[in-house]
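User: I'm writing a tutorial on reading structure tokens. Could you give me a worked example: one chain, its sequence, then its tokens, then a sentence or two explaining what the tokens reveal?
Assistant: Sure. Here is the example chain.
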Amino acid sequence: MQRDDVRVGHGYDLHRLEALAPAGAGRPLVLGGVPLEHHRGPVGHSDGDALLHAVTDALLGALGLPDIGELFPNTDPAWEGADSAVFLAEALKRVGEAGWSIVNLDATVILERPKLAPAKAAIRARLAGLLGVDGSRVNVKGKTHEKVDAVGEGRAVEVHAVVLLSRA
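And here are its predicted structure tokens:
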């Protein structure tokens, strides 16, 4: 492969977690399009799916395009409560239009609770389906912050995603 045949993109997202409505401002916790049972959820303008947001930004970043906040601003009422799969679909459309395809995705979800392990297979399968790639090209890791800082105290969820693109 030549250097101009591949692109790497990194995406990052963090959402504050609060008690679910009506007790708080939290939305139901969804990661990678998969609902997770938890008493706290993300505070966000859309559905708050930090994993899909990070993957979207990784794809856009690999292309040198504006980030998710520029394309889908939280000041636009059209995106209130929106399914983050819509954002990912737009990024994927742009990847294809630019002549690229996904080689692989590697994501790390940092969340104290709930534990990600029971949902990892479902999340990987959902991501692979949304991305249109074989499941072997998608990896999701779950980590904690060992009770340090807002993430470790269960007050936030943090996600890093790295995507490799190649010329289609």
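What the tokens reveal: The two ends are 13 Å apart (CA to CA). The CA atoms of residues 107 and 148 lie 21 Å apart.
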